Structures are given as structure tokens and as C-alpha cells.
Amino acid sequence: MKKLLDKLSEQWKLKDSQNKKPTKLGYLVIVGLLGALLLLVSGLFTEQKEPDRQNTQQTQNSTAAETEETFAKKENEASSSTTDLEAAYEQDLVGLLEKIKGVSEVEVMVNLNSTHQKIYEKNLIIGQQTSEETDQNGGERVVEDENEEQQVVLVRQGDQEVPLLVETRKPEVRGVLVVAKGAEQATVQEWVVQAVSRVLDVPTHRISVMPKN
To answer: Where are the beta strands (DSSP E) in 16-172?
Structure first.
């Protein structure tokens, strides 16, 4: 670029020294040099913009990766929480069932739904609308429309509004398997089923009790 500027400067100096208008050839040379200069300047701007585009793309990719990582982390935390709760139930049941007469060497497996259930406070909004209608025979009638709508109650927490959490329910028990010595006796098996049903608040048809070898 510096060489092109030097050539342009020489052309103008030559014009001044001769104290006359440049020739047609001189004009062509100047125009050509100006065109080359514009191409070089345009190329420099393009090279400067290209890294900006790459940086923008990298930022977008990084944001997407962070979002996916956040969701994956939440899913893993929920899964870990459910697994820990299942293990706690199993341990408690083993200790409890082994205290039942005729029951020993107990093994328990508890299967829960994957997530906790959160209950939020809601407002019930009842709307009523009354309208009068006239039929073709001139008769009039009053029509009343009533509708109900529930809206989650929001409370301010710092700089944002969040739903008002009323209760967090533990995951529902989907099934329980108990394997123990002594369970081959019908009476003992019934005791085990009733004990598990009362402790976990689960229907008896979701509980299976098997004798252990």
C-alpha cells in the first residue's frame, strides 16, 4: 500500500513540476493506482471482519454448550436424588422387616417415579357474563356464561417473581419387591405386605413378596 501511495505522490509532484495538466496516460495511471488502493483497503476491512464473525460463532457455540450442560446437570441431579431416596427406603425396610417374627435375610428393591412433584399456590378466578338475545319471533332470553380460570400465585424474590411453592411431594412408589426367608408362609407374607403398604403408603397390589432360597 505504501508503494501505491508513493507512486500517486510522484504523479502529482510531476504534474506540479511541469505546471501543466497531466496527460491522458497520466490520468489512466492515477485511476489504476486508486483502484488498486481501494481493493487493498477493502481487503483489509474484510480480514478484520472475519475474526469478528468467528468470535461470534464461537460465542454462540459456547452458549449452546453451556445450556446443554446445565440441563444435563439438572437431569443428573434429579436422577441422583431419586436413587438416594430409593436406597434410603430399602435400608429402612430391611431393618424393619427383619424384626417381624419368622422373617430373616431380607432384601428389598423399591422403584420410584423419577421426579418430585411440586405443588404451587393458585388463585381461582371466576368470570360471569350476561347477555340478552332476541330470536326470529321476537322472543327475548337472557344467556349467562360462567368460566373459571386458575392462575399461579407469584411472589417477589429479589429482583424477580417466582411461583409460590406450597408443597413438594416425594416421588410416588411404583413397586416394591421383598425377598426374605420365611416368606413362603402365607401369614408371614401377609404381614410383610401390610408392613410395606403402611410404611410407604403404597397399594398392596404394587408389593411383591417372594421366599428366599
So the answer is: 104-112, 117-120, 122-134, 140-152, 154-157, 160-163, 165-169
Cα–Cα distance measured from residue 32 to residue 8, given in angstroms and rounded to the nearest whole number? 10
User: 80-117+170-211 architecture in CATH?
Assistant: 2-Layer Sandwich (3.30)
Smallest Cα–Cα separation from 152: which of 121, 113, 128? 121
Residue with cell 412433584: 117
pLDDT digits (tens, 9 = 90+) for 12-68: 554 444 444 555 555 566 666 677 777 776 766 555 555 555 555 665 555 545 545
Please state the domain extents for the chain: 2-62, 80-117+170-211, 122-167
User: What span, in angstroms and rounded, lies between the C-alpha atoms of 110 and 174?
Assistant: 8
Check if the beta carbon of residue 125 is closer than 8 Å to that of residue 135. Answer: no
Place of cell 454448550: 65
Residues 182-192 pLDDT 10s: 999 999 999 99
- How far apart, in whole angstroms, are the C-alpha atoms of residue 5 and residue 1? 6
- Does the predicted TM-score (pTM) go above 0.70? no
Neighbours of 147 (CB within 10 A): 9
